[in-house]
Amino acid sequence: MDNFKKENQFDVIVIGAGLVGLSFAYHLKLKHPIRRVLVLEKEAHVAAHQSGHNSGVIHSGIYYKPGSLKAKNCIEGYHSLIEFARKYDIPHDISGKVIVASSDAEIPALDMIHQRGVDNGLRGLKKLTREELREIEPHVEGRQALWVPQAGIIDFPLVAERLRALFENELGGTVVFNGEVKTIHEDSKGVSVETDAHTYRASYVVSCAGLQSDRVTAMVDSSNDLRIIPFKGIYYKLRPEKEYLVNNLVYPVPDPKFPFLGVHFTRMIGGGVEAGPNAVLSLKREGYEPFSFSGRDSLDTFTWPGFWRIAAKYGRTGAGEIYRSVSKKAFTRALRKLIPEIQEADLVPGGAGVRAQACTRDGLLVDDFDFKFGGRTMHVRNAPSPAATSCLSIGNSLVQHVEKLYRP
Questions:
Q1: Residues 92-118: pLDDT tens digits?
Q2: What gap in Å lies between CA 37 and CA 148, rounded to an integer?
Q3: Which of 49, 123, 169, 208 could be cross-linked to 16 through a Cys-Cys bond (beta carbons 3.0 to 4.6 Å apart)?
Q4: Environment class of residue 27 by beta-carbon count within 10 Å: exposed (0-12), middle (13-18) or buried (19+)?
Q5: Rounded to an integer, what distance in angstroms lies between the CA atom of residue 25 and that of residue 321?
Q6: What are the strands, taking DSSP E only, across 139-242?
Q7: Minimal CA–CA distance to 25: which of 207, 187, 148?
């Protein structure tokens, strides 16, 4: 490290200023205040992609397999997030939500979700009859429902900004924006991380690169066996005069054939009600406009053997998602399963987000969080929902893992 300028030398470099990367950097600096920690972010601000393009929902942990990393980190992260929000006056609301079985055929799946919630330690869950559902959500139709009091909403970009401010201003960490990583080189003495403007040196590197996680991992590990398949979620919003139709959060029983939660209604922390999202293949990893396209991103998807196995497995369901993305009428029809009063004219275009979903070469969508350790680097390779809710737990637990491998 002697050949590098002092200002470019660090103990640990973190790649990515999303919620997970900032949480890790914050917890590391909190535990090891004398160490020099750098966060590199390729965009001009924090939470530029998944952390800032999500529905803002605080997840309870009810969906996730007991004992999984998702379940453990979501439950622990939930409580840490609420405490953090209260301490730093971050707008949030623990409003609760209903998960609705629209038909008798969906009731067994609803019962399974209920049991998972119980197994994960959630209290206050309540099965609702149609009449009890109407008392909570008067305009929602369903055969049965499950009340989840822990669910809520929050301003996740503000959480990320607060983590950055604490890390940088109070703990003395360093954040460099517009610092896209081009290469990573590891040797026996440390790791070099090159951007367009500078080359930085550290003893250890942690990548939390989200939609670019497979590419950053491959800079160190050419045998990386996961590929990010990006799925775009497109939202509508209810017109202001129709927001009365939704009191809190309204979710369907998710389709067990498809690894997403289905179109739902979310009352947002800044006001308004979102409806959606659908889940369609995105032709650009960081493309939020209707016709966003990247040749490189598309090539990476279509040349991955696992993608074609996914397409074969979920083809029919995926076709329905694509149809809803181009047909407002079809999108409205899906929403009317939950709220029959919804009309096409009640919906106006909303935002969009892109989910980074890791996929194996064999066509399996990685269901749990995935962290890979090796040498002087650690990579967060799969951190989709509920990573935002879980971010404080993930960051803290990764610090503990890194401490076992490297003495900060």
A1: 999 999 999 999 999 999 999 999 999
A2: 39
A3: 208
A4: buried
A5: 37
A6: 144-148, 152-154, 174-176, 181-186, 191-195, 199-207, 226-238
A7: 207
pLDDT digits 0-9 by tens, 231-285: 999 999 999 999 999 999 999 999 876 667 789 999 999 999 999 998 899 999 9
Domains in the chain: boundaries: 6-50+157-225+368-405, 96-149+227-360
Q: What is the dihedral of CA 292, 293, 294, 300, to 10 degrees?
A: 110
Q: Which amino acid is at 209?
A: A
Residues in the chain: 408
Summarised one tens digit per residue, pLDDT across range 178-212 is 999 999 999 989 999 999 999 999 999 999 999 99
Residue that the structure tokens 């790791």 belong to: 191
**In CATH, which of 3.40.640.10, 3.50.50.60, 3.40.718.10, 3.40.50.620 is domain 6-50+157-225+368-405?**
3.50.50.60
Residue for token pair 């029809």: 333
Tell me whether strands 199-207 and 181-186 are parallel, antiparallel or unpaired.
unpaired
Sign of CA dihedral 208, 212, 218, 223: positive
Question: Which whole-number Å values give the CA distances from 227 to 82, 208, 316, 359, 361, in the listed order?
Answer: 33, 15, 22, 5, 8
Q: Report the predicted TM-score, pTM, of the whole model to 2 decimal places.
A: 0.96
Residue 325: pLDDT band by 50, 70, 90 thresholds?
confident
Instruction: Determine the Cα–Cα distance for residues 28 and 360; give it in Å rounded to an integer.
Output: 31
